[in-house]
Amino acid sequence: MTRPRTALVTGANRGIGRAVATELYRRNLRVVVTARDPETALATAADIGPGVCPHVLDVTDPTGVMLLRKELEHVDVLVCNAGVLLDARTDPLTAPLDLVDRTLRVNLIGSWRLAQAFVPSMIRRGWGRVVLISSGTTAEFGGALFAGAPGYSLSKSALNGLTTMLAAQCEGTGVLVNAVNPGRVRTDMMPSGHVTPEQAARFIADVATLPAGGPNGSFLTEKR
Ligand SMILES: NC(=O)c1ccc[n+]([C@@H]2O[C@H](COP(=O)([O-])OP(=O)(O)OC[C@H]3O[C@@H](n4cnc5c(N)ncnc54)[C@H](OP(=O)(O)O)[C@@H]3O)[C@@H](O)[C@H]2O)c1
């Protein structure tokens, strides 16, 4: 079966990322699953289906991102999903700043690095969809910062800011950049979540395959 568009999903070995990769494959995209561990990347790709491409990627590794960009002919859909929640149950006065630093390097800079690597060629090709997986713990777009995981909350707020800046730069190019709040999704990060990864993935896949004229620079939450 011909799969005309290629999607790259970060942190695709488990949780929301794996469900998104599976859903995009189901929607007839060629899917590149990336994971930090090579064996997990291979196993995930094999589980999803024939033709899924496994790649090793730590989003904090600039060389790894550069090599991946060189290896892939092009990427049409980029889902920046890889994320960490390291400072839960702390507060702004006690949060260990090394954890905050790691959080920002994965959640914000990692996504930014992927966007810098793949968005310019989307613009040149005149089509692209970028989805940045945000959170309900953010201040922008009418939400409220969550002081109980301050580094995480700030990282996702900054990611929303990055979304608006990238979207403005992509305006009129055929590339749409949006942030998604997936809700509380039952994964290793949020075992008490009430949304299944598959439910969240359907909405994220909708945003990753928006038609021309769809929203750009928006913070999108599924109405449930
Ligand atoms: N679950 C929720 O309720 C919820 C709510 C709002 C937003 N989110 C966001 O949704 C995204 C996915 O979360 P999840 O719930 O699916 O969490 P998860 O099950 O903990 O999965 C996190 C994924 O990110 C990967 N990752 C972590 N650090 C990485 C790095 N440096 N480079 C590449 N991959 C890395 C993990 O890979 P390893 O297996 O190698 O660690 C894993 O694949 C995150 O951005 C999270 O902040 C989740």
UniProtKB/TrEMBL annotation:
Specify one Pfam family.
Answer: adh_short
**What domain of life does the UniProt record list for this protein's source?**
Bacteria
Q: What is this protein called?
A: SDR family NAD(P)-dependent oxidoreductase
Ketoreductase domain mapped to chain residues: 5-188
Stored Gene3D superfamilies: NAD(P)-binding Rossmann-like Domain
Family statement drawn from the similarity comment of this UniProt entry: Belongs to the short-chain dehydrogenases/reductases (SDR) family.
Organism equals Nonomuraea helvata
List the SMART domains: PKS_KR (SM00822)
InterPro entries to which the protein is assigned, alphabetical: KR_dom (IPR057326), NAD(P)-bd_dom_sf (IPR036291), SDR_fam (IPR002347)
